[in-house]
């Protein structure tokens, strides 16, 4: 079965500015795919092309087997995708339920309106007017409008902006449930924790091109990076006394290792022999945020490295 989204050598310019430069990626059916990048990196233009809201200058774009730039199939595509933008214009004097019900009427096989109200945790607000909702509640309404048409593919642009931590985690679970039910999801987010929690694969854009792509666990070589062990230097000890090579970084001992289990065994054994503790002990590899910042800080974008096998 063909991929849900296929993008090959996509290009779009605004005058002399190349907003999207030879971008290529695919999104499998039933996958959550995150497109990451700073403001102005080209994410929004790329998604707008895929959603059929903007034309492209060159390259190939295919969404659910259709060309999003083909006006002849535009309606068919709109009936099969859901779109949650950062700011959706809705009638402020309609109630939550009325707003969702009106949108449901645009689709041939919509989800049950009351079911959608409950899914996005607006059951207690169904009869409230849109104008009276909080920012987070309006964002939940945006999500409801995106899924009420029962789409095969859902585009989410910064889906949890304005959510408190509890609401954000609730939204994450909803997105996972939609994926588990067979929906394909393409999202953008500035929350690296969100991308790591949700995405099966990610692509990082910088200056209009993709600089890295692959699973979150291995993006930018995360899986092969050195493990960093840090702790407070015990009283009366010097760094030179430690059983492994170490350095002081911001007042804490820092040890980098390719064999963290063996290194921890040496350090804890040394501490136990001396009756001391390694206070504030932490063990970690570079986070997705660390990798993202490194990739987007590069002055000249490198060719895309698809960690599942090919270079583009």
Automatic annotation (TrEMBL):
InterPro entries reported for this sequence: AAA+_ATPase (IPR003593), ABC_transporter-like_ATP-bd (IPR003439), ABC_transporter-like_CS (IPR017871), ABC_transporter_ATP-binding (IPR050763), P-loop_NTPase (IPR027417)
Record-linked SMART domains: AAA
Molecular function per GO: ATP binding; ATP hydrolysis activity
Compartments, record wording: Cell membrane
Pfam families listed in its UniProt record: ABC_tran (PF00005)
Membrane-related topology note: Peripheral membrane protein
Signal peptide: none
One GO process term, biological-process aspect: response to antibiotic
UniProt keywords, alphabetically: Antibiotic resistance, ATP-binding, Nucleotide-binding, Transport
Span of domain ABC transporter: 5-232
Cellular component aspect of the GO annotation: plasma membrane
This protein's name: ABC transporter ATP-binding protein
Organism expressing this protein natively: Micromonospora sp. CCTCC AA 2012012
């Amino acid at each position: 079965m063909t991929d849900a989204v296929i993008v090959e050598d996509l290009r779009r310019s605004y005058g002399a500015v190349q907003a999207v430069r030879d971008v290529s990626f695919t999104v499998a059916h039933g996958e959550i795919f995150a497109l990451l990048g700073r403001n102005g990196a080209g994410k929004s233009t790329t998604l707008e092309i895929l959603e059929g809201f903007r034309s492209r200058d060159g390259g190939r774009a295919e969404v659910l087997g259709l060309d999003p730039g083909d006006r002849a199939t535009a309606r068919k595509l709109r009936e099969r995708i859901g779109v949650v933008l950062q700011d959706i214009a809705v009638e402020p004097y309609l109630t939550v339920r009325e707003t969702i019900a009106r949108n449901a009427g645009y689709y041939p096989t919509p989800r049950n309106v009351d079911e959608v109200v409950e899914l996005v945790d607006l059951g207690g607000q169904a009869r409230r007017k849109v104008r009276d909702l909080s920012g987070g509640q309006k964002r939940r309404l945006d999500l409801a409008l995106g899924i009420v048409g029962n789409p095969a593919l859902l585009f989410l642009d910064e889906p949890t902006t304005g959510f408190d931590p509890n609401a954000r985690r609730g939204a994450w679970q909803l997105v996972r449930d939609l994926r588990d039910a067979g929906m394909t999801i393409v999202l953008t987010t500035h929350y690296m924790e969100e991308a790591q929690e949700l995405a099966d694969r990610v692509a990082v854009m910088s200056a209009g091109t993709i600089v890295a792509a692959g699973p979150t666990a291995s993006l930018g070589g995360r899986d092969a990076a050195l493990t960093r062990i840090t702790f407070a230097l015990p009283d009366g000890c010097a760094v030179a006394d430690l059983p492994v090579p170490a350095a002081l970084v911001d007042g804490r001992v820092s040890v980098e290792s390719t064999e963290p289990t063996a290194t921890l065994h040496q350090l804890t054994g040394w501490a136990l022999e001396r009756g001391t503790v390694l206070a504030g002990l932490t063990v970690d590899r570079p986070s997705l945020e660390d990798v993202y910042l490194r990739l987007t800080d590069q002055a000249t974008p490198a060719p895309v490295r698809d960690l599942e096998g090919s270079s583009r």
